[in-house]
Amino acid sequence: MPPTADKLVREFRHILLWPLQLRRLRRETGYASHWDVLRAHPGPWREVKDNLLADDESCQTGYQDFVYFLPYVQRFLYGFGEADAQTPSSLHMFRRDDIATARVRLREEDAPIALSVERTRLMFFYDQDVAILAFEVVARDLPLEDAIELMDRFGRPYPPYWDAPGQGAHCPYSVEFVDAAGTLLSTSDYGDRDKYVGLVRDIKQTPLSLHWEYLLHPMVPAYLGGGLLQYYQIENKRIPIMTYLALDDPRGLTRGDLARIGYAAKWGPSETLPFAPPFLADFEQRHCYDRYWDGGNPAGGMNTRFVFCGVAFAMVTKHEDERTDLVHTFRRQFFQIGLIANFHKAALLNLSNRFSIAVERLRVGDYASVRSFKDSVREALELFLRFNHRYWVHEISNQVLAADIFSRWAHQLGSDALFREVREEAQDINQYLDADRTRRAGDNAMRLTVVMACSAVGTVATGFLGMNLYSHADLPTADKVWIFLAVFVPVTLLGLYTVIISKRLAVFMEALSSERLSWSEKLVAFRQIWRSPPKRAGATKRVAGGDEPTRRNAGQPPRRSGGPHAR
To answer: How far, in Å, CA of 3 to CA of 452, rounded?
Structure first.
C-alpha cells in the first residue's frame, strides 16, 4: 500500500557520529600523533587544512557557524589564527569523496534504497586517543516506514543476532557503497554468521561488517592488526545518530510514530506504541523539546520538534521548498553540537577504560606491576586533567536554542554522570598514589632512623676518644689505602645489612621502648631480628622481560593477525 502524502518524508537526512577508540602509537613508529600517520598514508582520505573552509571556500557558511559558538568552542572546532600558530589545534579533520551512494536493502525481499552520500569526515582530537567518523546520507520522498527502519538498522556495525541464516536481525540485509560512476566499492556481510561468531569466540571482540571496515580504511580494526592506525569500538550495538525528517504535515504523525522516531525503534503500525504506555507516560516531557512546536495550532508556524532519546537525536519539521535555513542549522550548527557531545562521552569512556585496565593489571606484591601501574595511571590522570580544562564545557553558545540542545543532548548521553564517575575513579587512584607515597616516605624515614640509631654508638665512642685512636700519619700511602678499605668495606656492609633488617630492628626498638612488655618478651623481640620473615602464600616472582605490561601497551586489548592472540 503506497504511503499517504502526510506520511512521506520529503527530505530524510541521516548522520552517523561514530566514536572510535584508537590504539596508542608506539614510540618506535616515529609518529607523534594519529593524524600524522594518516597524513603520511592517506589512502582515499584528504586532509582538511582549515576546518572553517571545509565546505565553503568563500567562508560564508563557515562564518555563520563560527559566530554561533563561544570563543573557547571556536578554538576547539576551528583552531587558532596566525597569532597563535604555535599552539596545536584541537581537532584535525580528513575527508573522502569517493563514495557517492549507499544502496541499502532493509530485508531480502525489499528493493534497495539509494541514499546519496553527502559527507564523510574523520576527525581526530589533540591529546585524546579518540576519533569520530561522520557519515551523512540523504534520501527524498521516502516512506515513513522505510525512514524509521533506516534509523533503526543502518547504523549497526554488526548484527546482534540472526533471524534466519543469512538474515541478520536489527540490521540491513545488505549495504553497498557505490562511486559516482556506479562501480561497486564494497558490500556488507551481515549474513556471514560464522565470521562473527568465530571472531567473538576466538578474540572476545565484536567484529565489524566489511563495508564499515572499507569506509575507515586505511585504519584497521584492532582484531585484524597489521596497521599503524588501529581502532576499537566504544559504542556497541548502535552507532549514535542524528536525523532530519521533513514532512508535508508533521502534525499527522501519531504519538507512536514520534516515539519510534525518537528511539529509532523498529517500525510498527502508527496507531500502536513501540513500548508499554506506562514507560512512555512522560515521553514528551523527558525526550521532546518543543520550543518551536505547537501541535494544536497549525496556523501558528511552530512546526519543528526535537526529540532526544539516548544515542538518537531527531529533528522533525515541516517541508518547505523555499526554506533552507532549517537544513543548514541541522547540518552545520547542530552537527557541531552533536560532535562535541559525542566526543565528550567517547573521551570519558576511553579514560574510564584506561583506569579500569590499569587497576586490573595491578599486582600489589609485584614491583614491576606496581611500577607499570603508576606509569599508566599517571599518564591517564594527566590526560583527564587536560581533558577537564581543554574540552569539558557546559556552555557552548549564547544562543538559547544551542544551549538547550547541547544540555539535553549531553544529558541523554549521560555525559555528566559519566564525568562524575571518571572523576571519582581519578580521585580514588590519586588517593592510592598519595597513600603509597606517604607509606614509602614513612618506611624510608624509619630505615634512616634505625640506621642512625645503630651507628650512633660508634659515632659517640669514636668522638669521645677524639677520633684518632691510632696514628697513621707517617705510614706509606699504600698502607693507608689498605687500612681505609679494611674499615670502609666492613662498615659499608654493616650499614647495608642494617638497612636490610631495619624493619625487624624497628620492631625490636619499639618493643624495647614499651613499658608494658616484660624483659622476656623484649628478649623474644630481640631474637626476631635474626629470623627471616615467612614468605607470603601465593607470592610469585616475575623474570625481567616476561609478560609485564609496558607503558604503551597497558590497557590495550589483544591483537589478532591471522589468528587469536592472548592478552
So the answer is: 92
Amino acid found at 100: A
Indicate the length of the chain as a whole number: 567
- φ and ψ of 206, to 5 deg: -80, 120
Name beta bridge partners: 12: 139, 245
* Cα 186 from Cα 208, distance rounded (Å): 13
> Burial code of 57-94, b = ≥16 C-beta within 10 A, e = fewer?
eeeebbeebeebbbeebbbbbbbeeeeeeeeebbbbbb
Q: Which three cell numbers stand for residue 144?
A: 515513513
Q: Cell 666492613: give the residue.
A: 490
Is pLDDT of 74 > 60? yes
| Residue whose grid cell is 534497495 | 112
Contact 170, 160 (CB under 8 A): yes
Strands (E), 62-193: 91-95, 101-105, 113-125, 130-143, 162-164, 167-168, 174-178, 184-187
List the grid coordinates of 221. 580494526
Q: What is the pLDDT of residues 429-478, one digit of tens each?
A: 888 778 877 876 776 676 667 667 666 666 655 555 555 556 666 778 88
Residues of the chain with pLDDT > 70, as a percent, come to: 84
The answer to whether the Cα torsion of 157, 158, 163, 164 is positive or negative is positive
**How many other C-beta atoms are found inside a 10 Å radius of the C-beta of residue 298?**
12
Give the predicted TM-score (pTM) of the model.
0.79
Q: Quote the pLDDT of residue 492.
A: 78
What are the helix (H) ranges across 165-254?
193-203, 210-216
Phi and psi at residue 161, in whole multiples of 5°?
A: -165, -175
